[in-house]
Design goal:
Layout (H helix, E strand, L loop, with lengths): L1 H30 L3 H18 L4 H4 L2 H33 L7 H15 L3 H12 L3 H27 L1 H9 L4 H39 L2 H11 L3 H29 L1
Helix pairs in contact: 4-5, 4-7, 4-9, 4-11, 5-7, 6-7, 6-9, 7-9, 8-9, 9-10, 9-11, 10-11
Length: about 260
């Protein structure tokens, strides 16, 4: 019996591998991609990066401006995440199978969350460009809408997973709806909710760079400006600063998660 199970898993792995190989070959054929040329160009690309993509003394003079712009981007990401988290928690409470009020309202909450979650922040940026143009507000709302959809779904699953048994126990004692929410759901699920919020902050800081390129704002726009003007030293400094900040925020987030979980 166990041998049949492993044989079936092995056959499935072969099928998946074969499908991936076929899809890869089809993509190469359709796009007319030259595999040999692509692989042979890697050493030349690495050589160019080492020779040109590093910060020099002239680029270091721009560091204060880069840090100011990066701080604006980080604060925008945190603001969009925290505001979206508050609204997402409300929708998660109303749409959850554990605490939801049921009926069409729960379906509406879940439907809105699904719609917002499945539209990428880059797509939100392009949509919002028509309304707000190239402004910080465009980037903020793009991050807000993407965070709202993702966090609503994550909060719903966290509430259903963590607080199900305690909610049933309180209902058996005749507790009211708000008593259940604030005495059971919030205390039992808040560590998981905070973990998701921290994860979303990290993700939004990464997304904010791409959004800045699309919307002409923030640290992404600064990188695009330097790169397009062939100022590779300053562009490399922007990249290094972004990487350093992301690693720092990830370290802080992981430290907080170890405390709350």
């Amino acid at each position: 019996m166990q041998a049949d199970f492993f044989a079936r898993k092995r056959r499935q792995s072969y099928v998946y591998f074969s499908v991936m190989v076929v899809l890869t070959l089809a993509a190469i054929f359709v796009t007319e991609y030259d595999v040999v040329k692509g692989i042979s160009s890697i050493p030349k690309a690495a050589e160019w990066t080492v020779a040109n993509f590093y910060p020099d003394a002239k680029a270091m003079k721009k560091l204060p401006d880069i840090l100011d712009t990066l701080l604006e981007t980080v604060l925008m990401s945190i603001a969009a995440t925290t505001v979206a988290a508050g609204l997402a928690f409300l929708f998660a409470i109303l749409g959850s199978r554990t605490t939801g009020i049921g009926g069409p309202f729960s379906l509406v909450c879940r439907g809105i969350a699904t719609l917002f979650r499945n539209i990428d922040v880059a797509a939100w940026s392009m949509i919002l460009l028509f309304s707000f143009g190239q402004s910080v507000l465009t980037g903020y709302f793009a991050l807000f809408f993407g965070s709202f959809g993702f966090l609503t779904r994550a909060f719903m699953e966290a509430i259903d997973e963590v607080s199900g048994s305690s909610v049933e126990a309180l209902r058996a004692t005749g507790a009211g709806y708000f008593h259940i929410v604030f005495q059971s759901v919030v205390p039992s699920s808040i560590p998981m909710l905070l973990s998701w919020i921290l994860f979303m902050v990290e993700t939004n800081i990464r997304h904010a760079t791409l959004i800045g390129i699309l919307t002409g704002t923030g640290i992404g726009f600064l990188f695009s400006l330097y790169y397009k003007s062939l100022n590779y030293s300053s562009a490399s400094l922007v990249v290094l600063v972004i990487v350093a900040v992301i690693l720092l925020i990830e370290y802080v987030s992981n430290s907080i998660r170890r405390v709350i979980l």
